[in-house]
C-alpha cells in the first residue's frame, strides 16, 4: 500500500532549542493513525511543520510524493487540517466559512453533505460569534473535511464535543477512512483514540519513540485475549488446545489473540466442532497504560545511552 | 490567485463595518454638499467638489484601518493557520491581500467620486459646471481626478508601511498608529523638510516628502519650488518606496512562524 505522507529525518529547531530529532515515518493510505505523546513532546510542532507553517532545518516532508516547505506546498490541496483550535471569523456564519474554504467542483453538495454528517443544520446560518465551544470545534472539523481531502490532520478533534457529537465524528472518520482518506489524529483522549486508530506514532522529546499498530502495542504491553462463553466449555478448551491456540490459565475459555485473524479462526473451529457460542468478548490492554510503559522504557533506554556516552 | 482575492473581498463584504463606513462616508459627502449650498462663501462649491466633499481624509483613515486588520485579524481570530495551510504559497496569500486592499481603495475613490457627481448634479445643477476652469489648464473635474489619483498613490505609500507593520506585529494598534501619524507627519514637518531640502537637495528623496504628492497636485507651482521636485519625480519616488516597503513586508511574511 503506497504512502500518502512521508517524513524523513526531519529536524527542527527554535533558536538553540532542537525540538524535532530525525523524525521519520510514513502514513499508509486509508489508515487512521494516532499521534500520541506527553505535553511538549513535539506533536503540534510536527503537525505545523508538515503543513508548511514552520521552516525546518533538514530532512524532507512529502505529501503524495511532492515536497512541502513553507514556500512551496501545492500538495496541501490534498490535505485538510484542524490544528490546536478552530480559527473562526466571528462576523461570518458557519455556512460562509464553508463557502469561503470550499474548493473545486460540486462545492454546494460537499458543504451540504458535511453539514448533515456533523449535524450542524440548526445553527449553520447563524453568525459564528454566538457559537459554543463545541459548535466552533465542529465547524473547524467541517472546514478540514469540506474538500474531502486525501489526508486529514486533526489536533485534539474531540475537544469540547458532547457524546453525540463525538460519536458523529467517530462515525464520519471511520466512513471516510474506509473510502481511502488517511487520518493523522493527535489526542489526549486515549480511550477515544483506542477506538479509532489502527496505527500509532509515539513521540517523546521530539523523537519518534515507536511506530506501531494499535494491536501490536496493546498486545506487546499486555495480553490481548478473547473470552468465550460456550455451550460446552470443556469441549471448547480441548478443541482449541488441539488446534494449538494459546490459552490463559483462566478456568473460562480465554484465548490469547496473536493477530486480527485469531477471532474468526476460533469461531470457525468451535462452530465446526459442534460447540455453540453464547457470547464473545475481546479483552484488550489499555492504551493509556501501554503508552506510559513505552514512554518509561524509552526514557530509561535514552538515559542509559547517555550514561554510556559519558 | 483570483480565488484568493475573491475570498478576501468576500470577508470584507461580510463585515458590518464596511457598510456602516460606506453609509457614514455618503452622509459626510451629503452634509458638506448641503453646507456648501447653504454657505457658499465659507464652503466654496468648486473647492468642495474638488475635495469630493471632504471624503479623501476619511477614505485614508478607513484604508489604514482596513489594511492593518486584513492581516492582524487573521492572528486575532486564529485563522492565519487555516489561511496558510492550503495549496497557495505565502506569497500568493499576501499578494491577494494587497490586491483586495487595492480594489477596496478603488471602491472608495470611485464611490465617493460618483456620489460627488450626483450631489453636484442635484444641488448645483445650474450654479456649478464640472468643466469650470481650475487653473493650470484643468477643469475642476480633471483637477479633482488628478488629486484623487495622487492621493491614491501617496495613500498606498502609507499602506505599504501599514502592511509591513501589520506583518511584524500581531496587533493592529501599531500599524494603525503609524499609518495615522504618517498621514499627519508630512504636514507637521513640511517646514523642517523645506529647510533640509534647501540645504541638502538629496534630502527631498525621503519617504515623508513623497506623501505630499496630493498637495503638489493641488498647488503645483507652490510645492515644486518649495520641495525642489517635479510631479513625475514624486510619482516615481512613491512607486519606489511602495515597492521597497511591500518587498520587506513580503520577505517578513514568508519567513515568520505562525
Walk me through what this model shows.
Chain B: This is ABC transporter permease protein. Chain B: Keywords: Membrane, Transmembrane, Transmembrane helix. The complex is a heterodimer of chains A (310) and B (258). Chain A is α/β, with parallel strands linked by helices and 310 residues long. Chain A has two domains: 216 residues, P-loop containing nucleotide triphosphate hydrolases (Rossmann fold, 3-Layer(aba) Sandwich), CATH 3.40.50; 61 residues, Alpha-Beta Plaits. Helix content of chain A is 37%, strand content 26%. Chain A contains ten helices and 13 strands. A six-stranded mixed beta sheet of chain A has the order 6-7-8-3-9-10, sandwiched between helices. A four-stranded antiparallel beta sheet of chain A has the order 2-1-4-5, with helices on one face. The longest helix of chain A is centred in the last third of the chain and has 23 residues. Chain A is globular and about 70 Å long. With 258 residues, chain B is mainly alpha-helical. Chain B has a domain of 180 residues. In chain B, helix 7 runs parallel beside helix 13. Chain B starts with a helix and ends with a helix. Chains A and B meet through helix 2 of A and helix 1 and helix 5 of B.
